[in-house]
Amino acid sequence: MDLQSRKVTNEMKVDLCSKYFMIGFAFLPFVWLVNAVWFFKEGFVKEEFEGQQKIKKYVILSGIGSLIWTIGFISWIVIFDQNRVAWGATADYMSFNIAVGKP
Predict the structure, then answer these.
(1) CB-hemisphere CA count at 13 Å for 34?
(2) Smallest Cα–Cα separation from 43: which of 6, 68, 18, 69?
(3) Contacts of 70 (CB under 8 A, 6+ apart)
(4) Of 74, 46, 57, which is closest to residue 20 (Cα–Cα)?
(5) Which residue from 48, 69, 57 is spatially nearest to 21, judged by alpha carbons?
(6) Rounded to a whole number, what is the largest CA-CA distance in the chain?
(7) Whole-model pTM?
(8) Which residues contact 21 (CB under 8 A, 6 or more apart)?
């Protein structure tokens, strides 16, 4: 959907932004990132229209949610990478690829 098209009403934009925000709750933080980037201009740059406050809210919350998920994911990667050998078989069960060689 091209947001710049005249066929797309402001109401449709608000509805789509809302749907992307809700889909992000299904453990899909990438959708939140797309929502924040795609609708940023609609919420903060364009002239005021009815429903813009909702888009602003969804863009901000999507950006925060995506950032929190990214920080959590990177933290897990670092912790797991540093402790994989110490966790022994438990870490091996969590691994898809088991590294061979000396730790």
Answers:
(1) 13
(2) 18
(3) 29
(4) 57
(5) 57
(6) 62
(7) 0.81
(8) 32, 35, 58, 61, 62
And the tokens for 47?
């002239």
Question: Which residues contact residue 66 at a Cβ distance below 8 angstroms, ignoring those fewer than 6 apart?
Answer: 24, 29, 30, 32, 33, 36
Distance CA 88, CA 64 (A): 35
Interior/surface letters 72-100, b for 16+ CB within 10 angstroms, e for the rest: eeeeeeeeeeeebeeeeeeeeeeeeeeee
pLDDT digits (tens, 9 = 90+) for 18-63: 999 999 989 788 999 999 999 999 999 999 999 999 999 999 999 9
- Give the span between the Cα atoms of 78 and 74, in whole angstroms: 6
Residue with tokens 């995506």: 66
